[in-house]
Design brief:
Length: 235
């Protein structure tokens, strides 16, 4: 039920046609949630932290009751969390990471946590915040996400479970006129041009003086820390 809600399969998202008996249970679950609508929203959210090294962390906030999920990063020299994006059923802006960046983050997490693996839970949870484009190894990304979901599937469970193609249906922006640019400071951002079939909603926009629309510098620092973690842990 968690994965059906987390991937929006319960709201006709990818994989909805495979819900089977779970669909009725999800309907009962939603009725129960409606009865608890006066509950403090802070009591329904769960924060998940992923350490990539050097005090840099990726922070995922999961609120299944509100169908709302957000991604942030934290630096060792700041108590504040910088938001990268969010995903919900209203005004979503989830696409914060390139595939190579997500892969780097998840590999660093696995290198620091002996109980973690790659591909595994970090990738299964964080892949909703990454998209793929013409210059990505899409087949490799699809296989990794599929393996991440499969690694969490209970043995002998034959009911609904998310798969890589469900993720790709929402994350594939090949041929959608998304153009990536990089400035001299190393900041990377994207914009979508002309007519398109899918909407690329992202807060990762061009840096502008005096604004903090997207924490480019902090993301660069986190990615550098993740790369250093992998370099240090390499045999």
């Amino acid at each position: 039920m968690f994965w059906a809600r987390y991937t929006f399969a319960h709201e006709d998202g990818p994989g909805a046609d495979r819900l089977g008996d779970l669909e009725e249970l999800l309907g009962d679950d939603l009725d129960d949630l409606d009865d608890e609508e006066d509950q403090d929203p802070d009591d329904t959210a769960l924060d998940v932290e992923f350490d990539v090294g050097g005090g840099h962390r990726v922070l995922l906030t999961v609120d299944s009751q509100a169908d709302s999920y957000s991604l942030g990063i934290a630096a060792p020299d700041s108590a504040d969390t910088a938001e990268l994006g969010w995903d919900d059923l209203a005004h979503w802006h989830p696409y914060a990471l390139r595939w190579a960046e997500l892969d780097l983050i998840c590999r660093a997490v696995a290198a620091l946590d002996p109980q973690s693996q790659h591909p595994g839970a970090p990738l299964a949870l964080l892949c909703r915040f990454a998209a793929v484009f013409e210059d990505d190894d899409v087949d490799g990304a699809l296989a990794a996400v599929d393996a991440a979901y499969a690694s969490l599937r209970p043995q002998q469970w034959d009911g609904y479970w998310p798969c890589g193609t469900d993720w790709l249906e929402r994350a594939d922006f090949r041929g959608q006129n998304v153009v990536w640019q990089r400035d001299q400071a190393g900041n990377l951002w994207a914009r979508q041009e002309d007519d398109h079939e899918a909407d690329f909603y992202s807060t990762r926009v061009e840096p502008a003086a005096g604004t903090d629309d997207f924490p480019h510098t902090r993301l660069q620092a986190l990615l550098s820390a993740a790369a250093a973690t992998l370099k240090t842990s390499a045999p």
